[in-house]
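yo, AA9 family lytic polysaccharide monooxygenase is done. seq:
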Amino acid sequence: MRTSIAAFGLLASATSVFSHSIFQDMWVNGVDDSSTCTRMPPNNSPVTSVTSDDLRCNVGGDKGVAGICTAPAGGNMTVEMHAQIGDRSCANLAIGGNHDGPVLVNMSKVTDAATDPGSGSWFKIDEEGYNPTTKKWGTDTLNSNCGHRSFTVPASIAPGAYLVRAEAIALHIAQTVGGAQFYMSCYQVNITGGGTANPPGVSFPGAYSATDPGIPIDIYQPIANYVIPGPAVFTG
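structure:
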């Protein structure tokens, strides 16, 4: 039986505090860089406004850290999410509490990855939304893979400094309290090799609207075609 909106709203308010999550760690071509290049948010709470500057790299994410991760264009990166800071246990869900929704990865070419505030242009390189056949979300994939989301760095992008923005959007309360929850962290990276592509992008805030079809959605009703927020994935 489908839980009523009123009942679910009470459940969400009671459990969501225990179910927040945070992107923390990065792997490059199978090598664990831990959180050395992560602009770590102060806690695992979400951003809830699509008009907030915190949508770029989370609270405090406009400030850089000392570490830079290095990856080749065309190489593999993996970002890692867990519910609590410092917890990398695969025994715990990466993002629990019915926090269902898409997972997205964006990149931004910058002059200095350690100082750029994230206010520039972002292009999307990876996403997973909803599969109506399996009824699985991108967040389900995170939970099935110890919080890991792997993707390929576009081989054609120009070398240099970038910010990588990993995000999970929890839609479980979009209808009950009027908005989704956005969980993101930014990683400071240096891309080597590559080509000359400088993909056009979007800005955060600005990439999403509170009325986008993939945000104010009731995920407890049948979904035939979920529209992932933001631009299309760059495939050049």
